[in-house]
């Protein structure tokens, strides 16, 4: 553990994560389908973050694009940080509903260009967020639908965001059903009714550290109760780092303030407990789903090729 320095009373973020690795490395290769690695909080120690992910048996990371700038940065990151001893890196290209008001006539051109990158595996993060309305709802809907149309044209998967907008979200996707490629509702925290609607549209579900949150007002227990309703071949796991640090890390003084991919085994363990299966079983199935949905190479993740 690093020694405290002047003005710092707790270990470095990375030291706290490193302390988790011995007990919480995944028992099988797993995939983090959503991590905001271009966030400024990773600028100073990204190589170490990637090394810790590899040590935790997180074999592939999907770097999330949330606007034109971050999508371009994600493309650059996967090009410049590829190395044989770290996780495989891929990215998504899209505009988050919070950033929809920034879209211009060039936005779709940029996304189309980024989507041609061999490691771009989805259009997104896109969708609707009527909880905070950082962009007006009508603007969100316009640019969400245009990204759905783009994904259909390119036959790319969709990486989706939905918060307090389930009805309109499902209506827009229903207009374009059936989609030619999978659609993934990332960081699902919705209701049972929303889950049923999304599954009826053949969508996949991503679960984050939200399930690790034991505060009653946050709904982690409700989310855990819904997991058995998700078919195993529709379920994947993610960190959404640097957000949603797993609160199953106890005591609180041992919990980092920044989430990172090396902590994905905590999500795996909590989700497996909610399903009544072993982390190994859920790890295998969630990784298999991620490979099929995003076209990841099983052999390079240390898995046997799917005979299907």
UniProtKB/TrEMBL annotation:
<dbReference type="GO" id="GO:0046872">
    <property type="term" value="F:metal ion binding"/>
</dbReference>
<dbReference type="GO" id="GO:0005829">
    <property type="term" value="C:cytosol"/>
</dbReference>
<keyword id="KW-0269">Exonuclease</keyword>
<dbReference type="Pfam" id="PF01026">
    <property type="entry name" value="TatD_DNase"/>
</dbReference>
<keyword id="KW-0963">Cytoplasm</keyword>
<feature type="binding site">
    <location>
        <position position="186"/>
    </location>
    <ligand>
        <name>a divalent metal cation 2</name>
    </ligand>
</feature>
<keyword id="KW-0460">Magnesium</keyword>
<protein>
    <submittedName>
        <fullName>Uncharacterized protein</fullName>
    </submittedName>
</protein>
<feature type="binding site">
    <location>
        <position position="161"/>
    </location>
    <ligand>
        <name>a divalent metal cation 2</name>
    </ligand>
</feature>
<feature type="binding site">
    <location>
        <position position="125"/>
    </location>
    <ligand>
        <name>a divalent metal cation 1</name>
    </ligand>
</feature>
<dbReference type="InterPro" id="IPR018228">
    <property type="entry name" value="DNase_TatD-rel_CS"/>
</dbReference>
<keyword id="KW-0479">Metal-binding</keyword>
<comment type="similarity">
    <text>Belongs to the metallo-dependent hydrolases superfamily. TatD-type hydrolase family.</text>
</comment>
<dbReference type="GO" id="GO:0008310">
    <property type="term" value="F:single-stranded DNA 3'-5' DNA exonuclease activity"/>
</dbReference>
<dbReference type="InterPro" id="IPR001130">
    <property type="entry name" value="TatD-like"/>
</dbReference>
<feature type="binding site">
    <location>
        <position position="240"/>
    </location>
    <ligand>
        <name>a divalent metal cation 1</name>
    </ligand>
</feature>
<dbReference type="InterPro" id="IPR032466">
    <property type="entry name" value="Metal_Hydrolase"/>
</dbReference>
<dbReference type="InterPro" id="IPR050891">
    <property type="entry name" value="TatD-type_Hydrolase"/>
</dbReference>
<keyword id="KW-0378">Hydrolase</keyword>
<keyword id="KW-0540">Nuclease</keyword>
